[in-house]
Design a protein that fits this description.
Keywords: ATP synthesis, Cell membrane, CF(1), Hydrogen ion transport, Ion transport, Membrane, Transport
InterPro entries: ATP_synth_F1_ATPase_gsu, ATP_synth_F1_gsu, ATP_synth_F1_gsu_CS
Helix content: 55-70%
Pfam families: ATP-synt
Largest sheet: 4 strands, mixed
Number of strands: 4
Strand order of the largest sheet: 2-1-3-4
Number of domains: 1
CATH class: Alpha Beta
Subcellular location: Cell membrane; Membrane
CATH topology: Pyruvate Kinase, Chain: A, domain 1
CATH superfamily: ATP synthase, F1 complex, gamma subunit
Protein name: ATP synthase gamma chain
Radius of gyration: 28 Å
CATH architecture: 3-Layer(aba) Sandwich
Oligomer: single chain
Strand content: 5-15%
Distance between the termini: 32 Å
Length: 293
């Protein structure tokens, strides 16, 4: 049985852990408010940009010589997956959910005879995929490390993806990330970037889709809009992931703080019982000695 000294040390250790997890919860809550505001503000712009390009893509469907970012390479053999995770842990199942979604996609694509390449964003996802699928990784990119995400980070990644697409290094590009729902829920999502995906229920895909006249020319307009759309979608994804990370960390630290409190209660009860047992034993020894005299 543990001594009173050992129990006091364990109680003190758990109390220190509870202070740390409580502080981390408050920090995550403060960061969450800013990250959630930025993610929600980016959603309408990204959705409008995606819908506009989808309508343009439907209007030009079947034409030859379309940009790679719009129509892809015309093949479906090589898939580039870009899983977005965090650089830090202590966020519950936030990173594990993206890793699991990525692993499932890899298995599905390979079962269909496709070639898969990986470009993970974030240290946690990069470390996991390096252990499991090191031969598929093109490169790893560290995320923001908990800092505010500048648009330049999405622009650099977008330029790199566009350059790889123009070189024919892949046929299909898909982002895998956690879409922020609320503090308790982040949904693992796969979003196709290249070629531009047309929603199944989008009116742009119907036979009554409008025909567009481009001014300036179609090639000039799309050459400007498509790279910008790619960067905007990546930026919105990074913001969604950042908000989801803080929400997941806040929830995880709240659970850890509650569990630490329960552990302290159990240890305190055990400490009091042990102390009472020791006192009772000492009283019995004193009374027994007095009776012997």
């Amino acid at each position: 049985m543990a001594s009173l000294k050992d129990l006091r040390a364990r109680i003190g250790s758990v109390k220190s852990t509870r202070k740390i997890t409580s502080a981390m919860k408050m920090v995550a809550a403060a960061k969450l408010r800013r990250a959630q505001t930025r993610a929600e503000a980016a959603r309408p712009y990204a959705a409008a940009m995606r819908r506009m390009l989808a309508e343009l893509g439907a209007g030009t469907r079947g034409q030859s010589g379309l940009p790679t970012l719009l129509a892809g390479s015309g093949n479906d053999r090589v898939h580039l997956l870009i899983p977005v995770t965090s650089d830090r842990g202590l966020a519950g199942g936030f990173n594990a959910n993206v890793n699991r979604k990525t692993r499932d996609l890899i298995g599905q694509l390979q079962a269909e005879g496709k070639t898969v390449r990986l470009l993970p964003v974030g240290r946690k996802g990069g470390d996991y995929l390096m252990r499991e699928f090191s031969d598929l990784i093109v490169d790893t990119i560290h995320g923001s490390g908990g800092k505010e995400i500048p648009f330049s980070a999405a622009a650099e990644l977008g330029e790199r993806i566009a350059a790889m697409a123009e070189k024919g290094e892949f046929d299909v590009c898909t982002l895998v990330y956690n879409r922020f729902q609320n503090v308790m829920s982040q949904t693992p999502t796969a979003m196709q970037l290249i070629p531009l995906a047309l929603p199944a229920n989008d009116t742009a895909a119907s036979a009554d889709a409008p025909v567009y006249e481009f001014e300036p020319g179609e090639e000039e307009l799309l050459s400007s809009l498509l790279p910008r759309n790619l960067q905007v979608q990546i930026y919105a994804t990074l913001l969604e992931s950042a908000a989801g990370e803080q929400g997941a960390r806040m929830t995880a630290m709240d659970n850890a703080t509650r569990n630490a409190g329960k552990a302290i209660d159990r240890l305190t009860l055990k400490y009091n019982r042990t102390r009472q047992t020791n006192i009772t034993n000492e009283l019995i020894e004193i009374i027994s000695g007095a009776q012997a005299l």
